[in-house]
Structures are given as structure tokens and as C-alpha cells.
What we know:
- The protein is elongated.
- The chain has two domains: 2-68; 69-99, no CATH class.
- The relative contact order is 0.18.
- The chain contains one helix and four strands.
- The chain has 99 residues and is of the alpha+beta class.
- The protein has one helix at residues 37-66, and strands at 2-17, 20-34, 73-79, 82-89.
Amino acid sequence: MSKTEFTLAVVRTIKTDEFESLHITAQIKEEMEWDGEEERSIAADRAVAHLNGDFIKSYRKIMETTGIQRSIGTATHKKNGVVVGKGNVTTDDEVDIFG
């Protein structure tokens, strides 16, 4: 029987404003014993599924409690060099985020 220790992590960084970000991280450290590559692969897949589940639950709860929306970028609207509006772009095809 063989033994493997590993650490898995998922990190998502969300830019909430200029010079401001929110980092959501889930990490697990696992130790598994296995006989053969198939058993090792199954155990590793279970650990990845566990990590993904933890991350998704945490991500949803944090987004819900902070009120932050998914953002694919931020935009600054300037008129004559003066900032007149800022906002997060929340969809891939959004054009006018200030209108």
C-alpha cells in the first residue's frame, strides 16, 4: 500500500474597485492510501470534488452576504479628463454601464 499527501487550492480574485480586490480561497490538505493507480485516481477525484463543493458554497455565501456581483472588469467613464462614473462590467456583452 502506498500513501500520498497533497494540498489542493482554488482561488478567485474579484476586482471590486480600483486598487481593491476580494480574494476567495478554499484549500484542503489530504492524505490518502492506495493500491494501484486506479484507486489513487478515484481518491484524488473525490478530493477535487470535495474542494470544489467547499469553494462553491463559500463563494455563493460570500457573494450573497457582501452583495458583490460577478465582474469581468471595471470601467471608468471620463468626461474632459474628469471621472464622472465608475462601475463593474457584469456581462460579456454589456456596453453602457452608466446609462
